[in-house]
């Protein structure tokens, strides 16, 4: 965080597109330095696993999904196996993620579509992905960016909230936000930008009480002052590896240990 951040909420001022681009890219650069370990927080080893995990992540946490998917993927390792699953058995396996009946129907239909229309392989383009059951632009961009290396912006609740606070958009429509933000960055940066912003939203820039006084991008944020500005009080609001008492976890993440390795070592990765 800057040494001398103002103690009151800033007024939003008119800004040219060029100025907004420069400020947005400065924010992303700072977040990249602050979260060099930012990755997709869902565990996966191939496009199919990421697609399933992302569908399951609706209305629940990535931590909960990661606790559910090992057994699920062991039982149904590919689209063909999932398409032939018994619905009640599938529901029981994914029940901890919530909304398990609706999610099981989406997963079964999605798997069937992949088998029937794409020879059992997850398609690697946006147009085909969004035709699958349970898949919208957000899920499609997660899969494209992280499983296929095709740049995409993932507008989840955290990304939408922070994009508005950063002054990158004034829209509440996810698709409009995606296009507004895309205009500010090079396509090669879209996927990692999504990770940086989501990480920051989960750890620092909370919905109800952002930790403004502990924010590394406070000096470039027009919404500074909406949350706690006192540095000591703000630090107590930090979550996950930034939370007080989790210094060892943060150090090991900064050193490059993977989430699987950290879990194996006994570190809790929840908030």
UniProtKB/TrEMBL annotation:
- EC number from the UniProt entry: 4.2.99.18
Q: Where is the HhH-GPD domain?
A: 56-203
Where, in this chain's numbering, is [4Fe-4S] cluster bound?
205, 212, 215, 221
- Gene Ontology MF terms in the entry: endonuclease activity
Sorted keywords for this record are: 4Fe-4S, DNA damage, DNA repair, DNA-binding, Endonuclease, Glycosidase, Hydrolase, Iron, Iron-sulfur, Lyase, Metal-binding, Nuclease
Signal peptide bounds: none
Q: Which reaction does it catalyse?
A: 2'-deoxyribonucleotide-(2'-deoxyribose 5'-phosphate)-2'-deoxyribonucleotide-DNA = a 3'-end 2'-deoxyribonucleotide-(2,3-dehydro-2,3-deoxyribose 5'-phosphate)-DNA + a 5'-end 5'-phospho-2'-deoxyribonucleoside-DNA + H(+)
By its UniProt entry, which CDD domains does this protein fall under?
Answer: ENDO3c
Q: Where are the transmembrane segments?
A: none
The record ties this protein, via Pfam families, to: EndIII_4Fe-2S, HHH, HhH-GPD
Q: How is the cofactor bound?
A: Binds 1 [4Fe-4S] cluster.
Name the coenzymes or cofactors required: [4Fe-4S] cluster
Question: What family classification does the UniProt entry report for this protein?
Answer: Belongs to the Nth/MutY family.
Q: Which HAMAP family match?
A: Nth (MF_00942)
Functional note: DNA repair enzyme that has both DNA N-glycosylase activity and AP-lyase activity. The DNA N-glycosylase activity releases various damaged pyrimidines from DNA by cleaving the N-glycosidic bond, leaving an AP (apurinic/apyrimidinic) site. The AP-lyase activity cleaves the phosphodiester bond 3' to the AP site by a beta-elimination, leaving a 3'-terminal unsaturated sugar and a product with a terminal 5'-phosphate.
**Matching PANTHER family, A to Z?**
A/G-SPECIFIC ADENINE GLYCOSYLASE/ENDONUCLEASE III, ENDONUCLEASE III
- Quote the protein name from its UniProt record: Endonuclease III
